[in-house]
Amino acid sequence: MENLDVIQKVVVLLGCLYLSWRIIRYLWSFLDVEKDPLIVLVTGAAGQIGYALVPMIARGAMLGSDQPVILHMLDIEPAADILQGVKMELMDGAFPLLKGVMATTDVNEACKGVDIAIMLGGFPRRKGMATKALISKNVGIYKTQASALEQHADPNCKVLVVANPANTNALILKEFAPSIPEENITCLTRLDHNRALSQISENLNVHVGDVKNVIIWGNHSSTQYVDANHALVDIGVGHKSVKELVANNHWLDSEFITSVQQRGDAIVKARRLSSALSAASAACDHMRDWILGTPKGTWVSMGVYSDGSYGIQPGLIYSFPVTCEKGVWSIVQGLTIGEFEREKMDASARELIEEKTWAYSCLH
Fold first, then answer.
1. Cα–Cα distance, 333 to 321 (Å, whole number)
2. Does the pTM of the predicted model rise above 0.85?
3. For 179, which of 31, 132, 143, 258 is 20 to 30 Å away at the CA?
């Protein structure tokens, strides 16, 4: 009789456990709902950077491993066949997160419903081409693309301009997409930021992941100021400043800066082609940190709309140190700026003012 009671109790216990497991699974099914796909536009998608970037997006490197995407790829008519080839390769990649692919030469079709726009497309700089000539060529392109985003993209679309001159192209885009919030239009200086991390890592013989908080101030050009004054290295038992570890201010104020500024030229000389993989990776880094947030205690460099911080003229697209949380960037405040830094930062701002003046003259 006692054995029967024990058996009955065990059966009841097992039954309760089974029912509990079914209830937990049922409740979990409501939590484990797949996210709605985000529509990501990539212009100039048939180019080198585009070819490197779109599989990164499809694999989740930009928006996370749980975020489905629909890719809209845009390029010019002469590149239509190449663009179709890229689409075929994406489909053959069988990426689980990729819920759809559009390949088109129609800017209005490409911009429909776009949540995120990565602007790689633009007139490329030819050998010996002056910046003013490059701006003149790109003003019309960015006016057209901005107008299409204004009419067809999601009103809260987040934009990253990569094509050079990136800061000024972003400014033109802002002018002709006025309904997109100004804080949603940015340009890429993360590649320069990553290059700076790499140079410090190599100099100190530490892992690049242990270096943080370099700053790219200003324009994505040779006037940019690469600042390691606030950079830190994780030494395992806390952080030490890069200045303390390098113990060579001359290197930090000269060779370090020029190495980052001229890294693109060095890659062209070595590859006989411009940076593509690193630029695509930097674009992923920029958007991922912007949307998913920067780690606590870490900032990154983004070209954003100046609000007057650090004495930089409001209305320029200027690279600042920023932190990001829940899709919103904030300029890091309160950093000490010395005389050397001030001179470099202001020189880059002056160049951006000149570019802005020239771009507006081309528009009118």
1. 9
2. yes
3. 132
